[in-house]
Each structure stands twice: as structure tokens, then as C-alpha cells.
Amino acid sequence: MIQLSIQIWRKDYLLWFLAGLLTVLTIAEPARLFSYPGLVDWPTLSGVAGLLILAKGIELSGYLHRLGKRLIEIMRTSRSLAVLLVLAAALLSMALTNDVALFIMVPLTTGLHGAGVIPVTRLIVVEALAVNAGSALTPIGNPQNLFLWKVSGVSFHEYVQAMLPLALILITSLLVLIAFMFDSNRIQVREEVDMPIANNRLFHSSLILYLPFLILIDLHQAELAVLLILMVFFIRHRSILGNVDWGLILVLALMFVNMRLIADSHTIHSFFTELRLDEPERLYFAGIGLAQIMSNVPAAILLAGYSSNWQLIAYAVNVGGFGLVLGSLANLIALRLARDRKAWLIFHAYSLPFLLVTGTFVYLLLFIG
Fold it and tell me: Domain named Citrate transporter-like: which ranges (predicted)?
């Protein structure tokens, strides 16, 4: 197990890129080294760690294979299955945040592989796009919306009303994309494949822990929540902890430190001061572009320091969640959960054109329509 983990980490190119970037930033400003722990968003990191453990428990319990087979029997084609999974992912992201939605949907989707001839990787890619699209609607759908909602001072209803046109464009565009990505041929069910033996104890432990875990997260007790999960799994299901993608936690920690160091640099502040972000079109393109290199959450926080136009910032950074994988934390989580190196290429093959098309539609809505 240890040798396998070392081999995986050696090929984790994103992790090594982020580690190299941090080395360069540390050499440039060595005095900030001791501030690095304070730059990490520990509640988010704790939440992701807990969800990784619970999702792995559900996945390895064997129940998802049975559910997957049932889904295939109901949804006879790849296209209808994709529509169902995408709409489910989008709806879950509106209420449970985009990250939580992925930790529910992606393990379910990977479980489909054993039940039939399914384009699992493409399904996970569109689920990543779906949670970004669905979460754009509500203040609690993603971290950038939650931040901008607090900045705006408007009610929950008013925020949803302001974001509805954007969400409609994104979800409608995604459904059109699905029509091109998936065919209407009947799914071939693998009748000969033996279903894994269900681990009732593991399944029930993982499922039951979801509710108290999410409640503690909502009460801003993420660190306590992950300690609860770790304690239960260490006592009852210790082997599951060895199967968790702990490399993702390290990648996220490096992302937090790197992006906040970059955002706090004098060069960045000087650059954005000269950009004249009081002009709406400049602000829109700055939000999309900035999200591509530092993710949409820090982009929203940074831009809010230069403009009070919270709605335009929200539109820009939510659109910016598409495109490159760094555009949204949800993209990174989905691709790591997919455990398929081809997923990174497939994601960009669809996400970059999706950014171009939806970004154009939103631009027309905001500035031409």
C-alpha cells in the first residue's frame, strides 16, 4: 500500500507543479514563510477530507454497483443517463454546494462501470460542469457566491433572482452539449459481471455519518466534523483510510497558499489598480481571466476589493469556473475522483469551448441585450 501511494504521488504532476511554484514564491519573499499555515483555509480542507473518507466508504461498500445497475435498467441510453445525472448534480449543488454534490455523484457514477458499457469519464466531466452551473444560482451553492452574498447585503431571494439568468444560460448550454457528447444507443448491460459483496456495516456507517457531518460543517465546526469521521473510521473501518486520496488534500493546501501569496503581492495589486475595473466590461473579462489562473473563489475576493458591483463579479467568476481545471475547486475534485488520467484531457476538450460559448452568451446578456 505504501509503495503504491509513493508511485501515485510521483506521477502527481499538479502537486509537484504547485510545490515548485511555492518554492519560487518562498525564495522571492522568504519572510512570509511562517505565515503559510494562516493562508490555508482549514475549514474547507477539513470538509473536503471528511467528504473524501465518506465517499470512499460508500464507494467501497459495494452498494453503488447495485444502484448503478438499476439506473442503467431505468435510463436505457447514455444520453438519458447523462441528463439524469447532470440534473441531479446541478440540483444538489444548489442546496449542498458544488463540492458536496460531487462527492455524492462521482462515486455513484464510477460504480456504473461494472454494470454496463458506460462512458464514465465523460459523465464525470459533465457532472463537474453541472455542479458549477447549478451552484451559480444560489448564495450557498459555492464559496464565491457565499462571499459575494455577504458583501451584497441582499436577501437570499434577491440573490437567486439576480443569478437566475446566468444559471439558465449555463444549464441550457450544458443540456445542449450533452446532446452532442452522448448518443441515444441502448446501453449494453453486463449481465455476466458478478456484483461485489455488499459491506452493510461500511455502507451504514458512511451513510449515517453524512448528516451529522454536514450539520457540523453548517455550524462552522469543520475541524470537529473531520475528527469525528476520522475517529469512527479508524476504529471501525481503518483499511478505508488507506484508500483515500490524501494527495488531493495536499494539493488543495498548496493551492490556498500559492494563490493567496500571489493575490497579496504588490505587483498584482498595482496591476489591478491600473486596469480601471470601474468599467463593467473590463471587470467581466478580468473575473473570467483571473479565475483561470487562481480559481474563482480567490478571484471573487480579490475583485471585491476593486469594485462594489457584486452581481457582475458573481457572473464573471462563476463563468470563469469553466475553462481550465483551476477555474473551480470542483473541477479539481471531480478529476481527482475520476481516477483516469484521460479525464484531464477530456475535461479541457469540452470545458474550454464551453467557457467560450457561455462566456459569449453571458456577455451578450450583460452588455448587448
Answer: 21-304
